[in-house]
């Protein structure tokens, strides 16, 4: 069965999921002349308080910015974004160590998930081609009949909709993917870390003053677990504790307020005085799980496609979940230009090009948890990063550190991972010769660097 | 919520799935005094013709035999099983090459899936503690209320059952696992090969005579694909073509009877004269997919457990799917003795002990496809296997080939895989010195073998 004929630009499109990726995608598609209907399970967030304990902030970086630039909204977002130029590591005795994210002036940006979603929804609502439908839970997707069974969660009425072209931007637990999972030979995996996370607050100081450096992402690396903090506009920080579910040091082991208090005082002593609501927050905020979702194919007969977390949910440790979903929009938009009107080819090319990158990013995100919770506390690791910066400064066209490729470039993730793996092998050969930053300039090291770079070229 | 109290041996148990593993498990549990109810989606196979194109035979080996011995049914089964002592490789020009499976008299046994299932169901039906319920489709499992919504597929009536303890033996597309997949932090993957399979027949000769050696598993290895054949009691062989779905040489490329005929004559010339029904069978028999399913945990709160394909469906290339499911029954039975009455511990230990073995077997099964379709056609590979046999004969206590560990021993699969990996590394060092079987006895080779064995010990 094929969709009824429409002029390529007027075909009506249906999006399930009005989160960050769904609302951005709607703007891209509407700009091409399509009528776009967005159905979102939750109430309109613009008329809601942020859900309890879920005032998440996200790290927006170059891939995300490019996607926002594509619809001209980058300046609005930049006004409410806080640049973070470095990591600030807090040792157990209160010492601070810093690691720059990139070259001077390169930063990731702390933005409120909720604020960004509101901005994108305002733009979508103002667009004449887009209609927004909230409180609409997708109960069933009939891929053969191209029908959606929806329930209005305010009236509990169920109704059936027909779609022509369907975009599943409904996140890690996607209903659209749920229907595709039952089709022939659909590869699927959901894989949980044995860690959960809990969100906590560092409050603002007097007169809305930030009590920690607001230009850093703060990390309390503790080997098998960590806490991080990102600044908010109001002077507070959102903290997240990433912590084992079970075991000697775990959520399961912290049962009483006294145990929580004693644990935090022991391992995060410099943070505790800034967290006056620690105990009620710890008790009341949910413990959330950390899942990686992979699947393939991402599309069904040129009629349905999964975008963002629906096809490639990743753990948050590289700050790339939203950026990857936004980059999906950029790539899809390029393909819509390249193969205008030929949805079969657009969807087929989209999944073919994008799947290796999504897989690479999923691996990088899991890898970075170990780096953040453990390796950043190791002086040798920090020295290696400094040496890498020096190589990159000396050979700017040949060596961009992996973190910069992922965060400050548009190099496909899979290519970045492959480059990063080669770079790490070189560093493993170089570092035995290096004991201080100054060693980089010794003739022996310089000779080896030159030799390695010649082979890399 | 915990189950109402019963004497450990009288607690009623519910099994979803009355296939090979479900019926065997019922016999093990009933022997302990439990009342066991089996619910099976399909009609009673004892009153049905075998489903069209699905007259599967299976390779029963030592792990399977041990499980059958546990309930005293091994002699009944052995009477209808055909021993296969070797692989017989058919080259494209009709040459036959052989590879023994193990030591003399070691064999895998070709048995009819349907016949074995009938035997086990007869035994289950005769047991006073077991009730059988066919045509019962499990629509929903409510893990909190411990309720099953079942539909009788003959009357279309739906009814709700309460269970005390539930065993999911309902195969690769398990409904019980489907419910567990929605619980917190359930890890799950379904992964398909890009190959499908189709079942075909080599007919019996005059007077029910086998037209190929009936003591061999026949393989037509063709690099990227293969056909295999296992003997039946009536003189016929069941053939299975394992073949890519897409591509130049694929199911997609064989569209017309003339294409099928030409292809088979070109690549399986010695088999075609024995397959008079090739064209109608090829057209009418389904093309089936090949899936590996992994998940964890396998149990839910000491109340529900997944057994066999429901928790670890594997591809068929090592002939271990049924054997692994039967070994699950052996292991579970041992744990029921060890921790009598303590279901929480039994289920927890079962999944903890058995998961690494299921994962190893899944990997081995995928690996063996490449061996069967490709490597067995390589004289160097066959020479390596002969040399391995010689090492094993010389050092019987130290070296059992991987295939024998998997097939003719009860060594846990994970341990077998680890041993096999070490052995392969040794063979990689040895084989460059060896060009003929006789080379094994040269002083240089013997010295290296001795040295390797000393390190292995």
TrEMBL record, chains A, B:
It holds the Pfam family FAD_binding_3. Keywords: FAD, Flavoprotein, Monooxygenase, NADP, Oxidoreductase, Pyridine nucleotide biosynthesis. Belongs to the aromatic-ring hydroxylase family. KMO subfamily. It comes from Hymenobacter aerilatus. One of its GO terms (molecular function) is FAD binding. The gene is kmo. PANTHER family: KYNURENINE 3-MONOOXYGENASE. InterPro entries: FAD-bd (IPR002938), FAD/NAD-bd_sf (IPR036188), Kynurenine_monooxygenase (IPR027545). Catalyzes the hydroxylation of L-kynurenine (L-Kyn) to form 3-hydroxy-L-kynurenine (L-3OHKyn). Required for synthesis of quinolinic acid. It catalyses: L-kynurenine + NADPH + O2 + H(+) = 3-hydroxy-L-kynurenine + NADP(+) + H2O. Pathway: Cofactor biosynthesis; NAD(+) biosynthesis; quinolinate from L-kynurenine: step 1/3. Its cofactor is FAD. One of its GO terms (biological process) is anthranilate metabolic process. Its EC number is 1.14.13.9. SUPFAM superfamilies: FAD/NAD(P)-binding domain (SSF51905). The keyword Flavoprotein applies. The keyword Metal-binding does not apply. Residues 14-360 form the FAD-binding domain. This is Kynurenine 3-monooxygenase.
């Amino acid at each position: 069965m094929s969709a009824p004929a429409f002029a390529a630009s007027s075909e009506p499109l249906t999006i399930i999921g009005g989160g960050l990726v769904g609302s951005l995608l709607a703007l891209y598609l509407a700009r091409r002349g399509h009528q776009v209907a967005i159905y979102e399970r939750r109430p309109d967030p613009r008329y809601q308080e942020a859900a309890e304990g879920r005032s998440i902030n996200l790290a927006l970086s170059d891939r995300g910015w490019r996607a926002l630039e594509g619809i001209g909204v980058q300046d609005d977002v930049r006004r409410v974004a806080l640049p973070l130029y470095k990591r600030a590591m807090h040792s157990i005795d209160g010492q601070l160590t810093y690691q720059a994210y990139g070259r001077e002036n390169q930063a990731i940006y702390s933005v409120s998930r909720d604020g960004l979603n509101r901005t994108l929804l305002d733009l979508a609502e103002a667009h004449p081609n887009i209609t927004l439908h909230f409180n609409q839970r997708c109960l069933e997707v009939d891929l053969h009949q191209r029908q959606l069974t929806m329930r209005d969660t305010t009236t509990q009425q169920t109704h059936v909709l027909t779609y022509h072209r369907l975009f599943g931007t409904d996140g890690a637990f996607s209903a659209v993917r749920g229907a595709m999972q039952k089709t022939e030979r659909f590869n699927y995996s959901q894989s949980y870390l044995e860690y959960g996370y809990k969100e906590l607050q560092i409050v603002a100081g007097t007169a809305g003053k930030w009590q920690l450096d607001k230009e850093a992402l703060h990390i309390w690396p503790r080997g098998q677990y960590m806490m991080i903090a990102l600044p908010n506009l109001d002077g507070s920080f959102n903290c997240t504790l990433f912590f084992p579910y079970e075991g000697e040091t775990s959520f399961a082991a912290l049962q009483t307020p006294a145990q929580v208090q004693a644990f935090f005082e022991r391992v995060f002593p410099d943070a505790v005085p800034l967290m006056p609501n620690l105990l009620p927050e710890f008790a009341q905020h949910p413990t959330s799980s950390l899942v990686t979702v992979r699947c393939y194919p991402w599309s069904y007969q040129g009629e349905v496609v999964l975008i963002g977390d629906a096809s490639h949910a990743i753990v948050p440790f590289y700050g790339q979940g939203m950026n990857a979903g936004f980059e999906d929009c950029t790539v899809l938009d390029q393909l819509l230009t390249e193969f205008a009107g030929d949805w079969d080819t657009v969807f087929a090319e989209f999944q073919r090009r994008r799947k290796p990158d999504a897989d690479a990013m999923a691996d990088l995100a899991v890898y970075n948890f170990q780096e953040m919770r453990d390796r950043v506390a190791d002086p040798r690791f920090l020295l290696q990063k400094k040496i890498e910066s020096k190589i990159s400064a000396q050979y700017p066209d040949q060596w961009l550190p992996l973190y910069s490729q992922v965060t400050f470039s548009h190099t496909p993730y899979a290519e970045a991972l492959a480059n990063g793996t080669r770079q790490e092998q070189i560093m493993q050969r170089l570092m035995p010769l290096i004991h201080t930053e100054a060693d980089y300039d010794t003739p022996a090291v310089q000779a080896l660097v030159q030799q390695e770079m010649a082979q890399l070229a």
